[in-house]
## 1
Amino acid sequence: MLSIRRSFFAYLDELTLITILLPYSYCEGESSKFVLVDNQNRMELPIQSKEKMQHFVKYSCRIKEPIQLGKRFEIEDENNGKTDLQIGAVIRTKAFDDMYYYDGPLGLEYTNTSIKTFLWAPTAQQVKLVINAPKAPEKERRVIDMCRQDKGVWSVEVNENLEGHYYSFLVLVNLEWSEVMDPYCVAVSVNGSFGVIVDLNKTKVQKPVLPPLKNTVDSIFYETHIRDFTIHPESGVQDKGKYKGVTELNTRTKKEQLSGLSYMKDLGITHVEFLPVHDFEEVDELEVLKQYNWGYNPSHFNVPEGSYSCDPTEPYRRINELKEMIQTVQEQGIRVILDVVYNHVYKKEASSFEKIVPGYYFRYNQYGMPSNGTGVGNDIASERAMVRRFILDSIRFWLEEYQVDGFRFDLMGILDVTTMQQIRKLCDDRNENIILIGEGWDLATPLQLQEKATIMNQKELDGIGQFNDQFRDKVKGSTFQLHDIGVAFGNLQYLHDLRELLSGSIGLYHEKGMFNNPNKSVNYVESHDNHTLWDKIEICFPEETNEKKQKMHRLASAIVLISQGVPFLHSGQEFFRTKYGIENSYQSPDPINQMDWNRKDQFIENVQFIKNLITLRKRTKAFRLSTVDEIVKHVTIDVLPNSILEYQLQDIGELGKWETIIVYINVQHHEEEIEIPESGWKLLVSDDEIYDDHYPFIEGKQKWKIPPISFMMIGK
C-alpha cells in the first residue's frame, strides 16, 4: 500500500481535459507550465485557462488525443514537483460511456473444471483475483493477476474446480488498493464478507403453471415482509421469520383460523409483493433477532438475504430456500413480486461500485457533490450506460434464475425513463405477464424532469404501474399532515375528487387525469411506509368508539377494492393492522412490525368482509375495466344533494351477470336516505354485509337508508 502525499492535485475531467489544482501553500499556487509524463513519454500541456479559487489556483489543460485509461501518468510543474493524474469527472461524460460501454460477459462463469471472472474496471491500473479457502479465508489466500481487455474489462481463467471457495478482487485506482466484492456475485459468505463460487445448476426448480393474467387491473396486490409474515408467536409457523416459514401450509392461529401462506391463498389475492429479499445491511445474520430492518439497505443486488435463511453460513441454503419459497407461493396460484432497490446503496463509500470505478455509479450535483434525492446520501446514476446495463442484467437474473413474476421499484422516480422502458421491453420479450410497479415520486436528483420515471411522465412508461399518492391522501388523508382526514373519514372537501379516484384517475372527472390507462393506477391507503390506516384513525379520532373507527377503516379499504385501477393491500390491513403509532418502523423490533395473528382471530368478521369483497371484484369485470374507453362507456359517478356518492356501472351485461350496478357511498357520520330507481334490484352489499348468490330482492321504487360511514351496492 502506498502512502500518498500530494503537494498538488491533477484530475482527468474529460478524455482530453486535465484539471490541475495548486494550493496557495504550494509555490503560491503558481506554475507557468505543466508536463504530462508516462513511462516513456513527456508532453507539455497547453494551459487553456487559469482561475483563482478560495484555497487554490485551478488550471485547465486541453490535449488533442484522449488519455488512455488504466495507465499511470504523472504531472510535473515548473518547480519539478510531481503528482499522479487521478481519475476525475471524466467518468461522468458521454464520451467515456461511448468509449467504454461493454456488452460482453461480466461476473463469474463456473464449470467443474474452471472458473472465468470478468470485472469492468476501466479506470483501474491493476486488478487481481483473490481466492480464499472455504470458511477459513485467513488460512489460504491466493492472489492472481488479471489481464486488461478491451473496454476496460479485466479477466482471468483458473483451471480448477473451485466450487465453494470464496473470492474477491483487488483493484488499484488513483494509487489506492481496495478489496472489493464482485457486483455480479450470486452467492456470499455469512454477512456478505466474500463472494462464493457456486454451481447454480444445482439449485434449479420448475416454475408452476400460473392462472392466466390478461390485464394488470385483474390483479390484487398484497404487500408483506418475510420476517413480519410469520414471526408472531401465534402464527402457527415452525420456521418463523424465514423463507421456509412462508412455505408452510395449513398453519393455524390460536383459534384454529388459517394463517401464513394458506391464509393468503384463502383471502383471494393474486400477487404477493415481498419487501426486499436481496442481501442487505444492518441485520447480523448470526444474531438475527437482535436487529430488524425492512431491507432498503442494499448490499449485494443478486444475492438473497441471509437473515431469512435457516442457515446463513451455508451459501447454497439461502438460494435454495428462496427459490423453494417462490415456487411454493406460485403453486398456490399466487404470483410473486419482489421489491427492488436500484435507486441507492447502503453506503456509497463502502460499496463495490464506488471502489471499482469511483464516481461513476452515482449522481453528482452542480457543485461536484453526491446528490441525495433518495435521502440516504447517494443516488444511483441509472442513465449511465454501464449502470443501466447492471440494472437490466440484475432484473434478467431474477427473472431467469428465481422465476419471479414482477418487480416493485423503490423510489422509481430516481431512475430514468429510458432504463424503465428497457426493463419493460426485457420483461415483455419473455411474454410472461411480468408486473412492473413503482414509486414515481419527483425527487431532488440531478436529472431533467422529462427524464425521471415519475407519475408526471407516465405516458412514456407504458406497462408500468405507479403508486397513486392522490388516491392515498384523499381517501385516508394526507400522509404528511397527520391530522388531515380523508373522504373515507368524512371529509366532504374530497368528495368530488373521489369520483376521479373511483374511475381510475384517468381524467373522467378532472380536466387532466393522472394516468392514460387504469392499469397504471395502483390504488392504496396503506403500505409498509408511514402510519398504518388503523393508527392514522386512532390518532385522528382518539375519542371515537372502536366500532366507528372500524367502519372508517372498512370503508377506506372497500374503496380500494371497488375502484377502477389496481388494488393494493398491506398485509394485515384486513384485520386492522397496528404498529402502535410508530410512523417509520424500518428498524423497529418484531412486536411493532409483526403481523399479529391474534388480531385475525379478534377481527375475523372484517377479514371475511374483505375476503368477500375481493371475491366480488374478481367475479365482476365491471370493477376491472382495462381501458379509458371502457371506463368512459360504462362509468358514471355523481354526488347527490345529500352528499351521497352514486357510482354507476351501466350497460355491463357483456361483462358479467349484471346489466347495471350502483354503489351508494355515505362517508358522513350520520345516516342518509336515497331513493332507489325503478324496480328489480338485488342487494349485493349492505353496510358490513356482502351477499353471495342469495341476494335480497328490492321491491319497486323505494327509499333506502344508508348507515353512516358505509356503502351499499345494488345490481340488476
Note: The domain at 632-715 is CATH 2.60.40.1180 (Immunoglobulin-like).
## 2
Amino acid sequence: MEVSPFYEKKIDCIYCKKTFPTLKIRTKAIKVEHTDTDFCPTYAESAVNALYYNVFVCEHCGFSFTEDFTKYFAPGVRETIQEEITNKWISRNFGAERTIFQALEAYKLAYICGVYKKEKSVTVAGLALRIAWLYRSLKNEGQEQRFMKMARDQYLTSFSTEDYASTQMSGVRVMYMIAELSRRINDLDTSTRFFSKVIESQRTGGEAKLVDMAKEQWQIVKKDREISREIASK
C-alpha cells in the first residue's frame, strides 16, 4: 500500500495552549526540482508542496505561527492579540490538505500575528518572503513585488538590530537576502551595497556558496545599472 506523503501532527497553540491537528509532509516525500536565487523552491510534485504547511493555524483562537516563533509574549501583547485576532476569529479548519489560497491565508495570518507579537524582524521577513513566493507561483507580479519589499525592509531591520543572532539565519545570509530582494524590486543602489558586503565577507571566512551567488548576482545588477543609465541619458 502506498504511504501518503502527509501525516497528522498535534500542535499545542503557544497562545491559548489548546491542542489542534495540522498536516505535515514526510521529509522523504519532499523533492525540490529547482531553487530560485532568493531560495524559492519549485517542487517536483505540485501536490506535495512543503511551503503550504509551514504555518500552524489554531482553530480555537486563530493565532497562527511557525516553528520559528518564540513562546515568550511581551507585556501587553496577549491583550492586543485577544483584541485584534481572537475576538475577530471565525473558527475554520486548516488541518487538511491546503490549496495555495489557503496557504496564502495561513501565511498572512502568521504575518499579522508575528507583527502583533513583536516577533524578531528576521522571522517576520521570512513570512513575507514566502507570501511573495506563493504569489510568484500564481504569476501575480504586483503582490509578489509588494511582499518582497516588505520582506526586504524587515531584513534591513534585522540586519541593523542583529536580531538574527541565535537563529538559523547568519549575518551573511541576511545581507544576501537584502541584496537579492533589493535587486528584484529594482532598488539597485541597496542591492549593490549589500552584494558588496557579502563578497567582502569572504575575507573573514564568509559562506562560500553565498559569496559565489553574490558575485553572479552582482554582475546582473551591474548590467541593470548600465541599462538604467543608458535609458536616463536618452
Note: The radius of gyration is 19 Å.
